[in-house]
Predict the 3D structure of the following.
Amino acid sequence: MKQLNFDYSAALDFINEEEIDARRKEGAAALAALINGTAPGNEYLGWLRLPATITPGEVDRVTSVAESLAQRVEVVVVIGIGGSYLGAKALIDALSGSFDDLARPPRVLFAGHHLGEEYHASLERYLEHRSFGICVISKSGTTTEPAIAFRLLRALLERKVGKTEAARRVVAITDEHRGALRVLAGREGYNTFAIPDNIGGRYSVLTPVGLLPAALAGLDIRAIIDGAAAMQRRSLDDGNAMAIDYAATRNALYRKGYTTEITVNYSPRLHYLVEWWKQLYGESEGKEHRGIFPAGADFSTDLHSLGQYIQEGRRDLFETVISVENTGHPVVVPADEANLDNLNFLAGKRLDEVNKMAEQGTRAAHVSGGVPNLRLLLPALTGYHLGELIYFHELACGVSAGILGVNAFDQPGVEAYKKNMFALLGKPS
């Protein structure tokens, strides 16, 4: 089976192998610190060997709970923010057909990831006439956005079906022993899954946090886990240095003044995978006035908006392109007798071929315009290969933060806005 691969050859006009090698040595030391448990934030390294330790029984329970809830409802609302929703959303969007959720119950929707009043009002109107359940994800149960969303939707659910039936339609993923949501789940009798104490939110996609919503959407979670476990073995046991190569190359570019990384996809199904990547690296590396700023773009769409800036704007950015080798969904451009759009030269070609030539031409243009390019080659959009990519980025992020000299596993700056918001709202001290 083909595996995920990394290509940095289009960055070598901007940095040389000696510069990358210097960062590789730091990356190897950072990886060793992760493996031996001496890295900063080492109390949150439970993700490191997680994929290969997930048991068939754990998979069966996730699948069983998902199937049981799916049989009762038309819609499941997943409530969470940050790492409590981005990984699940990334998996579902990448591995489902673009319109699958319109035809197959239950439809998986998301809430609690913002405070938009209109969104919540529209969601409640939508749910008023449908049978629905809730999967609420919060380690503490007190994070503002998901806690408010859960208040609203739990009240609606209990009003529609009563407290007893509502309890059967709620699954809580939370701290194993403590916290407001754990207390409420025990009191109401909700089905629960535990978020491991040694795994932080943005590293939790391969726990029930990501796997249960994926199972609710009908995805093969075993394939996702298998791909992640294979990448774990390649990286930790077989000596494959791909994660170190990526971390070293991006840090070598950073030291040459390339302070923004734009991760680019050419498939709309990967939009939320890039959003997950942005959170993973942004919260992990943006500390002590350091770090590469993570941005994302959807090509070719954003070539008609950001393309001008990327081609000719400030030369402080580099791109990482996620290339999907095989889409598995052939669509052929038809001929047109009138040919008013002058596109008959494309007749008979697959749409994916046109897309790949857009990718190839764009990469060449950006490199010649002064934008270093890295490339992650994904054989196909399958659960296995998405599992590979997720674990690769988790590991590479930990290594990259080690090279940078920051703790990858805390987020002290996130509390600043909350303190101000609560003061403005009059929260009792």
About this structure: The CA atoms of residues 319 and 372 lie 6 Å apart. The mean pLDDT is 94.
